[in-house]
From TrEMBL:
InterPro entries associated with the record: Ntn_hydrolases_N (IPR029055), Pen/GL7ACA/AHL_acylase (IPR014395), Penicillin_amidase_A-knob (IPR043147), Penicillin_amidase_dom1 (IPR023343), Penicillin_amidase_N_B-knob (IPR043146), S45 (IPR002692)
Protein's name according to its UniProt entry: Penicillin acylase family protein
Annotated family: Belongs to the peptidase S45 family.
Bilayer-crossing regions: 41-66
This protein's UniProt keywords: Hydrolase, Membrane, Transmembrane, Transmembrane helix, Zymogen
Superkingdom per UniProt: Bacteria
Length: 831
């Protein structure tokens, strides 16, 4: 064929060859002008047709593939390990109601259901805890996977989890074993393909073990207790500002809160440590309030609870109900864990918020100048305890790290592989959540089984970390509060800054006895309210913390409960959606003293003048207020905080109000030679804010709204990163509220791209009716399934955003009559 083509264009002589070749080409162009057009159109049409086919066929194939991965909720499956048949009835929202003849089989079926719906979420959780993310993710999305693995291996979370198994009550170990058996039965008998995440990562899940379930508790303890970066921040602030100016930055802190740095550390720099050590958790919070029968429409207690964690799709929580002759329990589970974390069991109901106690300390250890393998203690030089950890990284050579520990805990300044500590020193983390004999899972399990407040109180004695404010009540009408955990007693110091480890002066000398931890039983007021505010008064004999979160949400809840109208389940659900910002109401009079510099500023101020402080998604005022406050905080503090400013930057309304009225020295920009006033700061920040909003949303203020920026970030952690297709897995929705409203919508204010994206909030809400626990209400932020092609991937999103909820009740006949699917799990026949 090649020779034939060559012969067709071969000329007799050079001259004619050129002319003939040129003539043929020109003839094609000139003698048949339509032929080229037809040919071009034909080729173009073919290409477009091919591209169109691929554009349709590839996504369709992908969708069919993903659809085929959705497990069936119908039929009969023979299961190795079951002792008796179990009915799994999934209601119209995909919530499993597990009907079993005993609790062991119920835990087995719950493990099976979790694996069907959330297998990759479970896999990712255990890999994070074990420090095994990089071996499947590699560095394709940056270094974060390796960074996580370094930290988890340094802390030894999974090793400590395995050690804790032996300390658990026998019944809890049995529950963990039965749950793991259910997951593994699914892995060996599944008919559908693995979820798409496993396919993309070319990953085959390993069998599940009880330690895999326990590691979630360790991760939560770490995330909900992560104040060690605050210690480093305070140490750096003390090098920049005097203590009284630091208190200006945090005006909600108790007036007598000391801010000091041990004299032995005053010459040391913690700049590099703060820059390199990872942030173990975001700003977290929750709400709970419990009103006894004297204040409710039913004459029995009503309990409302909504824990606030990071938002993503699927959400952390998974609704489930278990029905056995021994126990009926309903509420929120976490895929990977057999116990209900929050819920009711037909006798008691309970809720959690984070205490924000200080259970972590950074100890600066001095390396022995004569031997770098040792460090100094009050009793002389001691060797570091060391071990080697091998981190596998997909597509790259293994990474071997040496982990060192001191008498206080693991050396976290080694995490980034460089000298994160001051020269001649290392930084060790002391943390109650790193105990090798942690019985917290046993406490939660016994709480699940408790039938009254007394049994619940006894169960909580096993809870070690993180410290939680637990409100609980029983069907008899008793109400109670308890804050269980191991909380350190320090020989000296307040836990707000790093301390020297070689002197022994700041060592922990024990933990607060269980009987001396904060508690209340049937308080005279008839109510218990906590929104992460301070839980003890000045007369409490122990130090829980030196810094407490802003009490503004608790104040707002108290205002709503002060109404003369008895509380009902419906009213409690409405209260959970409250978006009134007391901070906005407090600072608005100060903001409105601003003189407008032009017509647009006058228009914005007029809107704010008639606004009641409600952070409603469909209103322009919250957007103007939030952006103005963002720019105002920058104007007031960025010049003096310098490199520390990004970590401080937030909607700090109370601090800004304090600086504008009581500490006006902050209004002067120290980076200029002029002397600026607070009026200057207000005017300049308003102008900057309006310019930013206009650039993003146009000139017409009537088209502005808070929901344009404030959207719950419900996106898939892995699939959301896939180019082009990532948006298909995004369930984000506009929401009300901000970081300081009861309906909490925390944002990353320092972000340049999305400063008001709603990244943390109440991914689960519940209201418990102790007059009729079947009337209790539940909702999660996304859906039950982790598969984006499942009908239950995002079917709770709208309900959640608008304050709706579902009940988890009904017998098998009622559930089937209302459209529930039925999956029967039967024991595998004996051979």
């Amino acid at each position: 064929m090649i020779g034939m083509v060559h012969a067709a264009v071969q000329p007799v002589a050079i001259g004619p060859r050129i002319s003939i070749y040129q003539g043929r080409r020109n003839g094609w162009d000139q003698r048949s002008p339509d032929s080229m057009t037809r040919r071009t159109l034909t080729v173009t049409a073919a290409l477009l047709g091919t591209l169109l086919f691929l554009a349709v066929a590839v996504p369709c194939a992908l969708l069919l593939w993903m659809r085929a991965e959705v497990p069936s909720g119908r039929g009969t499956l023979s299961m190795p390990g079951l002792s008796a048949p179990v009915e799994v009835l999934r209601d119209r929202n995909g919530v499993p109601h597990i009907v079993a003849s005993n609790l062991g089989d119920a835990y087995f079926a719950l493990g099976h259901a979790h694996a069907q719906d959330r297998l990759f979420q479970m896999e990712f959780m255990r890999r994070v805890g074990a420090g095994r993310v990089a071996e499947v993710v590699g560095t394709r999305f940056g270094s974060w996977a390796v960074d996580i693995d370094r930290m988890m291996r340094t802390l030894g979370l999974y090793r400590r989890t395995e050690s804790s198994l032996g300390a658990l009550p026998p019944e809890t170990r049995t529950a963990l074993d039965r749950y793991a058996a259910g997951i593994n039965a699914y892995l060996t008998t599944r008919r559908e393909a693995l979820p798409i995440e496993f396919q993309l990562l070319r990953l085959e899940p390993e069998p599940w073990s009880p330690a895999d379930s326990l590691v979630w508790g360790k991760l939560m303890a770490l995330q909900l207790s992560g104040n060690y970066r605050e210690e480093l921040r305070n140490a750096r602030l003390l090098r920049t500002l005097p203590p009284e100016r630091i208190r200006d930055l945090y005006p909600e802190a108790p007036a007598d809160s000391p801010v000091t740095l041990a004299s032995e550390l005053r010459g040391l720099s913690f700049d590099h440590a703060l820059a390199t050590l990872p942030d173990l958790g975001p700003d977290l919070a929750s709400n709970e309030w419990l009103v006894d029968g004297r204040g409710t429409a039913t004459g029995k207690p009503i309990l409302a609870n909504d824990p606030h964690l990071g938002l993503e799709a699927p959400i952390l929580w998974y609704l489930a109900r278990i029905v056995t002759p021994e126990l009926t329990i309903a509420g929120a589970t976490v895929p990977g864990v057999p116990m209900h974390v929050l819920g009711h069991n037909g006798h008691i109901a309970w809720g959690f918020t984070t205490t924000h106690s200080d259970t972590q300390d950074l100890f600066i250890e001095r390396i022995d100048p004569l031997d770098p393998a040792r460090y100094l203690t009050p009793d002389g030089s001691e060797p570091f305890r060391t071990r080697q950890e091998v981190i596998r990284v997909a597509g790259q050579p293994d990474l071997t790290i040496t982990v060192r520990e001191t008498r206080h805990g693991p050396v976290i300044s080694d995490v980034d592989g460089s000298a994160g500590a001051p020269a001649g020193h290392v930084i060790a983390l002391a943390f109650t959540g790193l105990a090798d004999d942690d019985t917290t899972a046993g406490g939660l399990h016994r709480l699940n089984l408790a039938r009254n407040v007394a049994e619940a109180s006894a169960a909580l004695s096993l809870h070690k970390a993180p410290q939680q404010n637990v409100v609980y009540t029983d069907s008899k009408g008793t109400t109670a509060f308890m804050a269980p955990a191991l909380v350190p007693i320090r020989r000296k110091g307040d836990g707000r800054t790093p301390v020297p480890g070689w002197t022994g002066e700041y060592d922990w000398i024990g933990t607060i006895p269980y009987d001396e931890l904060p508690r209340a039983l049937d308080p005279p007021s008839g109510r218990i309210v906590n929104a992460n505010n301070r839980v003890v008064g000045p007369d409490y004999p122990h130090r829980l913390a030196s810094e407490w979160p802003d009490p503004v949400r608790a104040r707002r809840i108290g205002q709503m409960l002060d109404s003369d109208t008895p509380l009902s389940v419906e009213r409690a659900a409405i209260q959970q959606m409250d978006a009134v910002s007391l901070h906005a109401r407090a600072i608005l009079p100060v903001l409105l003293t601003t003189r407008p510099g032009n017509e647009r500023e006058a228009q914005a101020l007029a809107l704010l003048r008639s606004w009641d402080g409600t952070m409603a998604r469909d209103r322009a005022e919250p957007l103007i207020y939030a952006w103005w406050l963002r720019e105002l905080v920058r104007r007031l503090t960025a010049d003096e905080l310098g490199e520390l400013f990004p970590a401080y930057w937030d909607l700090r309304a109370e601090a800004a109000r304090h600086m504008l009225t009581e500490a006006q020295g902050w209004c002067d920009d120290v980076s200029t030679s002029a002397s600026e006033t607070c009026a200057d700061a207000l005017s300049a920040s308003l102008a900057t804010a309006l310019a930013a909003i206009t650039k993003r949303h146009g000139n017409d203020m009537s088209g502005w709204s808070w929901g344009l920026e404030h959207k719950a970030a419900l996106n898939h952690r892995l699939l959301g990163r896939v180019p082009v297709l990532g948006s298909l897995f995004d369930l984000s929705v506009a929401t009300d509220g901000d970081a300081h409203t009861v309906n909490r919508g925390t944002t990353k204010v320092a972000s340049s791209d999305a400063p008001f994206s709603h990244v943390h909030g109440p991914g689960f809400r519940a209201v418990y009716d102790l007059a009729d626990l079947d009337n209790s209400r539940f909702v999660i932020a996304t859906g039950q399934s982790g598969n984006p092609l499942s009908p239950h991937w995002g079917d709770f999103v709208t309900l959640w955003a608008n304050g709706g909820a579902v009940t988890l009740a009904g017998d098998a006949n009622q559930l089937r009559a209302s459209g529930a699917t039925r999956l029967l799990l039967t024991p595998e026949p004996q051979q």
